[in-house]
Every structure is written in C-alpha cells, then in structure tokens.
C-alpha cells in the first residue's frame, strides 16, 4: 500500500495547533496568511483522519495521533454508495404543516421533494421555520412555495468518494447531500452519517 502523505500546508496546520491549542479556524488561517475558506478542506481532512479534534465554539486540538495510512486508505476508498442512507420523500403539494409534522416524526434534518422519482427540491428545517413564521395558512400552503429548487441544489452521485462528499458538506456548510442518479433521488449523505462512520472506523482501529 502506498503511504498517504500530508501536504506541506496540512503539516503547518498541525504544528500551529500543537503550539496554540485550542486554535480557531481564523487563527490557523491567519498564521498561514490564508482565508478560512482556503483551509476548510485541509481542516476537514485532518479532523476526519483523527489528527485534529474539532470542538464547536472552542477550536481545534491536536489529538496526539499520527496519520494512519491504513485507516486513511480505507476511508479514501469508500464511495457514496457505501455510506448513503434513505431520505424522507414528499411531494411539492405537501403542506407546510404536514411537512413540519413529517420532519419531526421521521427525526430528519431535511425533506426531499420529488415528482415521480425525480428530485425537484429540498426543504430544510430552516425553510420550514421561515414557512411557519410566515403569515399564511400552514395547512393550505404547499412546500413548493418555500423549497430550494433544482438546479440550485448541490448533489453527489453514488460513484463519488465519501471523502469528496464530506468535503462538500464542510465547504458549503450544509447538513446533507442528495445522492442523484439520472435525476432520480436514491439516497442522501448527511453529516450525522459521516461522523458515525469516522467514529466507528477509529473505534474499531
């Protein structure tokens, strides 16, 4: 197996965090004279491989782990098809009221709006909150009025790598990605699923 090597920038990030933990993303970016967006993918790789530990509203810590090429290679070879889960589907005629009920009954972060099997939109918790606060009849107003429509939705395919999907979630700061094949919604990749994957991987190691 070919050993996976970190980039020079990723090594610099590790050294800065070691010396300054907890280090925020802005502090790390500033030390490299780069923007936070530029190093976002680097930080996602370093946290997903277990080298850095990210704590919300605190910063990044050095975990004490070195890069394990075997684990990294195992993760790198995973595809979206290996990790995707089943989304909750609704139609564009579904009312805002019924969508809110469905969201909480299914304990999910978003609803995928389909026409036949084709993905035409997504409704998130934020969308539904805005819809609930609007001065409209929630039982009569369809979610088509508040959903994010294609083609303004970031998607992945079953053949994309799991690491690529994780990077897209981090870079675009979204909670899930629809998995689409021939315009048909066949699954989703969520932050929750990816976190569980990496926790299980390192726990088993």
From TrEMBL:
SMART domains per the UniProt record, alphabetical: CBS (SM00116)
UniProtKB keywords: CBS domain, DNA-binding, Transcription, Transcription regulation
Matching CDD domains: CBS_pair_CcpN
Record-linked PROSITE patterns: CBS, HTH_DEOR_1
Residue span(s) of domain CBS: 83-138, 147-205
Keyword Transcription regulation found: yes
Pfam families on file: CBS (PF00571), HTH_11 (PF08279)
UniProt superkingdom: Bacteria
Gene Ontology MF term list: DNA binding; DNA-binding transcription factor activity
Protein name: Helix-turn-helix transcriptional regulator
Source lineage: Bacteria, Bacillati, Bacillota, Bacilli, Bacillales
